[in-house]
Design goal:
- The chain is mostly helical and 272 residues long.
- The chain is built from eleven helices and five strands; from the N terminus they run H-H-H-E-E-H-H-E-E-H-H-H-H-E-H-H.
- The protein has helices at residues 9-19, 23-32, 39-56, 87-109, 114-119, 137-140, 147-152, 154-178, 183-192, 203-235, 241-269, and strands spanning 59-66, 74-80, 121-124, 131-135, 195-197.
- The strands form two sheets. The protein has a three-stranded antiparallel sheet. A two-stranded antiparallel ribbon has the order 3-4.
- Helix 8 packs antiparallel against helix 10 (203-235) and helix 10 crosses helix 11 (241-269).
């Protein structure tokens, strides 16, 4: 008998330390219990939060200047590492969810069809009653259930990692053209604000600079988001890696909006 257990990792830690005579075993259970959230999961979640916030500050600043006046005012146009924010992981998750749903529906109706079986075979997990893929395409793009499973089937693990990184980079790279954030769109925005890239007066020179940084930042940033999602899943962070990425990026976006509005109000207050 395991006795009374609490779901919360911190509450469980204090409960185990106070109720168990063997403190070493109590700490071990608090850090590594597998049936409920543990301290290791909590620390992994905090680590991913901090890493994502740290990477949010990575950016390349392109010097720009105003075309108005004899000596145009200088400034900088930031190109962030997470140029497309959390959109790559949203699109990747939507793709996987739809593939899983289609595969499950087809397997229930046509389980003996060879194409359906190539897409995925499903069984019911006796522990939680959930349907899990055991072979086929959807199996190889589904995350391993544990670290042990990663080493047990390395082909599955490597295929899943390559799929997540590749799709995140692909979606991020081409989302800029859908969201009007491509180099051509940025050039038009700068023109509308009477801004030009410093030391680049012609359109070809400015486009060359924008095309050098923006697509690269989009693709590499999407891949970094994929890496952070995989790290969160493999480290056992509480919740899914996708959920943590979405949470942090949304909070950070609101923080930036709040900071920007505060700076604008402070600037305007000087003239009131």
């Amino acid at each position: 008998m395991r006795g009374t257990e609490y779901e919360g990792a911190i509450i469980a830690l204090f409960h185990l330390l106070l109720s168990r005579q063997n403190k070493v075993k109590a700490l071990k259970e608090a850090f590594y219990r597998g049936n409920l959230p543990n301290i290791t999961n909590l620390l992994a979640t905090i680590l991913i939060f901090l890493v994502v916030i740290y990477f949010q500050g990575f950016k390349v600043e392109i010097p720009v200047r105003s075309t108005q006046g004899q000596r145009g005012q200088a400034g900088k146009y930031p190109v962030k590492l997470f140029y497309t924010s959390n959109m790559p992981i949203i699109l990747q998750t939507s793709l996987v969810t739809n593939l899983f749903m289609i595969s499950q529906v087809l397997y229930r109706r046509f389980s003996n069809h060879i194409i359906v079986r190539l897409l995925g075979r499903w069984v019911t997990d006796p522990n939680n009653g959930a349907s899990v893929p055991i072979s086929g395409l959807v199996y190889y793009i589904s995350p391993p259930q544990s670290i042990a499973e990663m080493f047990k089937d390395p082909i599955h693990s490597m295929t899943y990692i390559a799929f997540v990184l590749g799709t995140c980079a692909f979606f991020s790279r081409y989302w800029i053209y859908v969201s009007n954030a491509a180099p051509q769109n940025v050039y038009q925005q700068l023109q509308a604000q009477n801004l030009v890239i410093a030391k680049r007066h012609d359109k070809a020179g400015q486009m060359k600079v924008l095309e050098k940084f923006i697509p690269t930042a989009a693709a590499f940033g999407g891949m970094c988001i994929g890496v952070l999602t995989l790290a969160a899943d493999f480290l056992g962070a509480i919740g899914s890696g996708t959920g943590i990425l979405l949470c942090v990026t949304i909070i950070y976006q609101y923080f930036e909006i709040f900071t920007k509005e505060g700076e604008e109000e402070g600037f305007l207050s000087q003239f009131m």
